[in-house]
């Protein structure tokens, strides 16, 4: 298949062949999730098209890294939902009694990250069916366009029916080739449901889950609630509701007072998606991870998350794409592996592979600055040793960098203006970018004016954090220094009153003779003179000076940007600036495509997305082939017209392309050709390329020129 330039591929609809089996074609439709899309990325075929150097090793490394990353992310997201699932399950179990007339209703606020809601409700559905009741009906607005559909879908799912009422099939606007089937269930009303439930041995609640409450029709939703409440009171049906909402404002709009009084509600709140994002970044990229994201890719991912959809599933899909592209594009990524495999892989490198590593920009800069190391360009044995030591040093640096970010976050937390960021994720990203020089100076100034008690609390917090996170004692010197500073400040606090009395300077009050008043200029001069008098250095000043010196030397040295280290391009994806290995522009086109450019490319050259030979252009870009989809033909014909397009002339041109060469030119246009043309024009209008004209009824107005 041809290489594409965007995930936003052109959409071409082709009718499926008529189904000959007895089941409805819709029953065979497979529902794809984001996880399915991740699995559909055919890594083997993509790696086969990449650089042939160490393809098998890179493919194996990619699969290991992505499997570990995917499992860790799934565990994090699952753990974040664990408490919420437990609370909802407890609520449903506690309200299983049919005594109250109001319908027990759980409102679950999941935020505006709509792509993640389906995964949560799927997990909730499984949890409730396993632990509470097998009678669970999960509905969404797409399958419930009317109250009739909503009731029948609810009954169907509660009773585990496999068919849909033929009346629904006739009401829906389906293609002619989809033939409705006869239902096997006779349960079509709540009265039938009550009769069916009376014969059920297991008297567990009937749980109805509404995933997207905001998308349901308001009147339809209110009628459904009133209907369920009527049968809960009259027929003793233990119906319960679980409703997913994005915002509380929509809840007030959907449920009026007449409806809300029928519900016994309780609200549940999920963790904000930003909190989960912070946890994901800490666990995936700050804790012993092999592949890390460079500053540009990290910023690109955060922009897409924070300013687009707040979706963790979309975030992980982009991470998957980055990991794959890093191993596909970079032939030197074969050494992006666990530290235990480094030595053996370096030994297996050929001379051609070593030359590739010598072409890495950071190594070339190192050679330019260190002319004494020119022998590394010719001596393979020496270069292998240098490569191994550099990568080991880089692994150690990455671990210390993450720990140092935690130390800095503990020391700067709560300071004015949130110098490096309010969360650990913001601190990590800002330091990764390397834009901390001004913030660092301000941080030192604020520490310099801190009290002994405040400074001691910050140091103790940093020590506690470091003790918990640094399990390998890689920053044992940091721990020792923090303990020493904390003990000195503690000892100073015990003797503070005595030291302050012994070292305090004599009062330098301004002497003003009685009966004489100073004007403001004289008073200002005397106050300035008093301020310039040097204050004796105290013990606290000495300790504070030692702390600041330690921060400027030791901590600042560990917080250097990774771009300053040799071979950082191997472990930090997207660090290759202005080289053929730079994947950032390609990733940006995938995750932030320009819709109009993508659509225009798909319509003008559909083969670039469909990957078929029948639509391939052999000549100019304006070439029109009869094998192209109808929408593409109509689009390419409309680009040759002016502001107003005559529909009849347009249809004649469309017919001229579709008809065979041996057909008579004067033959009338077939009805099927007319229908295809009308459908293609309607699709083009839906895309926003044309609109109807008020000046001439048989013309349409063109809305776009160029790309």
Automatic annotation (TrEMBL):
One GO molecular-function entry: DNA replication origin binding
Keyword Ion transport: no
Biological processes, Gene Ontology terms: DNA replication initiation
InterPro entries the record matches: ORC3, ORC3_ins, ORC3_N, ORC_WH_C
Protein name: Origin recognition complex subunit 3
Family: Belongs to the ORC3 family.
Species for this entry: Daphnia galeata
Domain of life: Eukaryota
Domain (Origin recognition complex subunit 3 winged helix C-terminal) ranges: 596-705
Domain Origin recognition complex subunit 3 N-terminal: 3-335
Annotated Origin recognition complex subunit 3 insertion domain residues: 346-572
Subcellular location as annotated: Nucleus
Keyword match DNA-binding: yes
Keywords from the UniProt entry: DNA replication, DNA-binding, Nucleus, Phosphoprotein
Function as written in the Swiss-Prot or TrEMBL entry: Component of the origin recognition complex (ORC) that binds origins of replication. DNA-binding is ATP-dependent. The specific DNA sequences that define origins of replication have not been identified yet. ORC is required to assemble the pre-replication complex necessary to initiate DNA replication. Binds histone H3 and H4 trimethylation marks H3K9me3, H3K27me3 and H4K20me3.
Any Pfam family hit: ORC3_ins
């Amino acid at each position: 298949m041809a290489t594409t330039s965007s995930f936003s591929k052109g959409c071409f609809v082709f009718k499926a062949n008529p189904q000959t089996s007895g089941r409805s074609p819709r029953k065979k439709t497979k529902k794809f999730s984001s996880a399915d899309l991740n699995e559909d990325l055919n890594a083997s075929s993509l790696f086969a098209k990449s650089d042939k150097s160490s393809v098998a090793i890179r493919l194996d490394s990619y699969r290991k890294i992505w499997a570990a990353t995917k499992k860790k992310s799934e565990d994090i997201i699952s753990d974040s939902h664990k408490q919420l699932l437990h609370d909802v399950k407890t609520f449903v179990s506690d309200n299983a009694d049919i005594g109250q007339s109001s319908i027990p209703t759980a409102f679950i606020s999941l935020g505006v990250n709509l792509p993640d809601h389906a995964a949560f409700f799927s997990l909730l559905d499984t949890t409730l069916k396993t632990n509470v009741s097998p009678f669970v009906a999960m509905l969404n607005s797409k399958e419930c366009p009317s109250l009739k559909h909503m009731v029948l879908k609810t009954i169907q799912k509660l009773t585990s029916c496999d068919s849909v009422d033929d009346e629904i099939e006739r009401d829906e606007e389906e293609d002619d080739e989809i033939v409705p089937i006869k239902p096997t269930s006779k349960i079509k009303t709540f009265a039938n449901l009550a009769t069916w439930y009376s014969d059920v041995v297991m008297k567990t609640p009937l749980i109805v889950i509404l995933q997207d409450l905001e998308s349901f029709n308001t009147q339809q939703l209110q009628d459904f609630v009133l209907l369920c409440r009527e049968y809960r009171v009259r027929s003793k049906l233990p119906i319960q509701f679980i409703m997913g909402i994005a915002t509380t404002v929509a809840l007030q709009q959907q449920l009026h007072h007449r409806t809300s009084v029928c519900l016994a509600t309780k609200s549940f709140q999920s963790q904000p998606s930003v909190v989960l994002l912070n946890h994901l970044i800490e666990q995936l990229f700050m804790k012993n991870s092999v592949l890390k994201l460079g500053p540009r890719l990290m910023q690109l991912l955060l922009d897409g998350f924070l300013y687009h959809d707040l979706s963790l599933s979309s975030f992980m899909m982009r991470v998957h794409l980055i990991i794959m592209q890093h191993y596909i594009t970079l032939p030197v990524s074969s050494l992006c592996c666990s530290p235990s495999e480094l030595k053996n892989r370096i030994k297996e490198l050929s001379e051609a592979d070593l030359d590739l590593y010598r072409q890495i920009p950071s190594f070339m800069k190192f050679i330019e600055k260190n002319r004494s190391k020119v022998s590394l360009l010719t001596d393979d044995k020496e270069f292998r040793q240098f490569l191994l030591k550099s990568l080991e040093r880089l692994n150690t640096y990455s671990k210390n960098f993450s720990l140092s970010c935690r130390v800095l976050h503990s020391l700067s937390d709560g300071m004015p203006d949130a110098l490096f960021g309010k969360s650990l994720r913001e601190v990590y990203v800002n330091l990764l970018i390397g834009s901390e020089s001004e913030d660092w100076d301000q941080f030192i100034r604020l520490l310099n004016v801190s009290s002994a008690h405040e400074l001691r609390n910050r140091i103790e917090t940093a020590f506690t954090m470091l003790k918990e996170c640094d399990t390998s004692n890689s920053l044992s010197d940091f721990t020792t220094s923090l303990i020493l500073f904390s003990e000195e400040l503690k000892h100073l606090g015990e003797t503070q009153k005595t030291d302050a009395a012994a070292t305090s300077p004599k009062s330098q009050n301004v002497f003003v003779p009685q009966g004489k008043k100073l004007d403001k200029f004289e008073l200002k001069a005397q106050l300035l003179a008093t301020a310039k008098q040097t204050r004796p250095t105290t013990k606290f000043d000495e300790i504070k000076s030692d702390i600041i010196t330690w921060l400027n030397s030791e901590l600042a040295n560990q917080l250097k940007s990774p771009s300053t280290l040799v071979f950082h391009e191997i472990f930090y994806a997207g660090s290759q600036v202005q080289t053929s290995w730079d994947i950032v522009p390609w990733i940006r086109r995938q995750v932030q495509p320009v819709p109009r450019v993508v659509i225009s490319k798909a319509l003008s050259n559909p083969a670039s997305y469909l990957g078929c030979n029948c639509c391939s252009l052999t000549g100019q870009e304006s070439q029109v082939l009869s094998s192209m989809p109808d929408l593409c033909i109509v689009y390419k014909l409309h680009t040759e017209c002016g502001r107003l397009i005559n529909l009849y002339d347009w249809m004649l041109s469309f017919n001229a392309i579709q008809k065979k060469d041996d057909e008579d030119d004067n033959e009338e246009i077939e009805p099927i050709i007319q229908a295809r043309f009308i459908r293609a024009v309607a699709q083009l209008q839906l895309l926003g390329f044309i609109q109807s004209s008020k000046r001439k009824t048989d013309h349409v107005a063109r809305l776009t020129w160029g790309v």
